[in-house]
Amino acid sequence: MAHHLDLHLWRGAPQNLDPDRPVQILVNQGYVVGFSPKTLQPAWSAYCVAHAEAAVDYRRPLHYYTDVRLDPALRLSNRTFGRIGNIPLNVGHMTPNEVINRQYGRLAQMETFLMSNMSPQYEVLNQGVWAKLEQAIRGVQTEPGADYAWVIVGPVFGDDPPHVSRDGGKLVPVPEAYFALVVDPVRYPYETPANVKLDCFLIPQTAPRSSDPDAYPSTREEIERRTKLRFFDSWARTYVLGQESDDTARLTMQADAPSRLMRAIEVRRETWKKEFDVPAAAQPVASTIEGLIADLQEEARLTSEQVLGEHRQTTREERIRAETLQHTLSWLMRAKEITSDRSGADKPGGQAPAPADPVIAPQPPAGIGAAPASTGANIITYKIVNDAGDRLRNGARAACNFWNRFILPRYSIVIRLGLFTHLGNTIARAYEPYESDGVRYGQVEFNTRYLLDFTADQIAGTIIHEIGHTLGIGWDNWSKMFDRKTGRFTADAIASLAALANMEVERDGGPGTALAHWDEALFDRELMTGYKDPGEHVLPITIDVMEAFGHDVAERLAGQTSLEELMQGIASMVFSRQDEVRKIDLDYFKETPLREVVPHDATQLAQFVAEQE
Question: How many helices (H) and strands (E) does the chain have?
Fold first, then answer.
């Protein structure tokens, strides 16, 4: 398909000016990629487009594909990129699926899913400004004298980029930004730069969702400097392009009508505000405490619905706003309670209680089907004994949201979280649950030696695991459900929950690990195995087995699901059941034996217990 090269490129392929970065050109049905063996992703990807929204639209393929044209050492499998630190990464198309499938058909569309066309994009960019840019490019209209627009996009790397490891140790650098050049020919002859419009963008990975592509203008020279590529080499450099560094020439070009791309951006701007912007912050216009609470709860509901509906992680701005809402709602509800109690104190027998500190408790997200607050439904919440910069508090919110999403517990649960300092390799320790007045308490402590090195998801994942124990895994009637010698579940247990026939209990390890988890050798990275692993997932049985302990399941899993995916959107949920939590004695404490340590290691557990005696 070498003859397709000139069909998809404007004035030839970009010239590579980096001697340390070879570029392998891969020609496809609807686009061309300049693949970099050094970075295992495109150095550039190019295509052309004309009114792509008017043509056929095929359904998105289900899978990514390894590009077998590459040397095996350079191929990436169709796995996702995971995350870098606490930042989720998307498999980011350089040439977009939706532009190509509308113009060149199903086979061409599938070729856009080759991993040679992919780059690890921050999720907030991939589903925000980059998606807007692709929409606008797709909407470029065919006009008299103006047919195709020509696009080249690609990654921009910092001096020392972070890497993600793939496929047995292949290191893929993560870009710090992405460039796009869009050529719009407007007057014949097109061989002269003065007869085209050139829109240049340099968009950082951290671009807020609410921003638009034209908020990140650049120049051809700047992009060439950052990428060590030379674009449109057949053009004479004596001509100045629309967004070159010559300010006088730029002003002259801007005097003309805007390019078709810029008009497409303008047409979509209002739609994007509704589709991509976070809900507007509630305005304090209510005249009563009840009205203020209702306004803030509505904002929280809209934010949670948007994040969950888009199946994405919350942005930093959304998390900050959610935290503000949580604290504000807590204080307002406490103020409402105090006001109500003081009114009652004026009546015979009335007594106003002393003010209490506000407590934030999680609420199941909309659509789960949990009972409303007025029914007195049980709840999973937390108590922070001591913390380091709110790291445990934030992890507890996410963990409680996770379980409140799936489970309606038969008793309320309080997970108590605190710190300890130990020079060994213990990163966290958990104690046996205890009960009082129908509430079950669990206790987890994190080692200050390691806590600041944990990501938010690692902290939340550890707390989620320990709440799973407090709910019943390893306790209650758990030990009666399986044979201690084989780890296999009994016929009675399987009769009540058929999926237990495929499960086996861990028999190795020390106290707290053996007979209290799914078997590590069989289920490895599952959330409730006895050993902490990166990239953990959750099996449907981990949710369903809660029914065996008397809990109701509010939402089931259809299949094995990554913990990362399940936690997407959780940080945006705002808690509004504080009044119920205040009825629970969060401060009740009882010393109980140590149950397990993280990492779960029998020798380490015995050593740790001995050191405490």
Answer: 19, 22
pTM over cut 0.70? no
In sequence order, what DSSP letters do the residues of 586-606 get, joined into one string? TT------EEEEES--HHHHH
| Maximal CA-CA distance, the chain | 93
Quick check: 381 and 581 in contact, CB under 8 A?
A: yes
Instruction: Judge contact between 29 and 111, C-beta under 8 A.
Output: yes
Residue type, 334: R
Question: Read out DSSP for 341-370?
Answer: HHHHHTSTT--PPPP--------PPTTS-P
Predicted confidence at residue 351, as pLDDT, reads 43
Residue 572: per-residue pLDDT: 52
Q: How far apart are CA 450 and CA 533, in angstroms?
A: 16
**Residue 72 CB neighbours (<10 A):** 7
In angstroms, the CA 482 to CA 488 distance is 5
- Residue 169's pLDDT is 82
Residue with tokens 């290691």: 601
**DSSP assignment letter at 215:** G
Backbone angles phi, psi at 435, to 5 degrees: -130, 155
The answer to whether residues 129 and 121 touch, using CB atoms and an 8 Å cutoff, is: no
Mean pLDDT split into 10-residue runs, the chain, 613 residues: 74 92 94 96 93 69 90 90 78 92 86 96 92 92 78 94 86 95 80 80 90 93 96 61 42 62 93 74 67 76 59 58 72 73 50 37 32 56 90 88 90 93 79 92 89 82 91 87 94 94 87 85 89 84 94 89 74 58 86 78 49 50
Question: DSSP assignment, residue 2?
Answer: G
Contacts of 346 (CB under 8 A, 6+ apart): none
- Cα dihedral across residues 286, 287, 292, 293: positive or negative: negative
For residue 14, what are its two tokens? 């970009």
DSSP structural state of residue 329: H
What lies within 8 Å, CB to CB, of 270 at 6+ separation is: none
Q: pLDDT value at position 190?
A: 65
CA distance 196 to 148: 12
Q: Give the per-residue pLDDT at 202.
A: 96
Rg (CA), the chain: 29
Q: What is the 3-state composition of the chain as percent helix, strand, coil, each rounded to the nearest 5?
A: 35, 20, 40
Domains located in the chain, CATH noted: 2-276 (3.40.570.10), 376-612 (no CATH)
Distance CA 30, CA 44 (A): 15
pLDDT at 306: 59
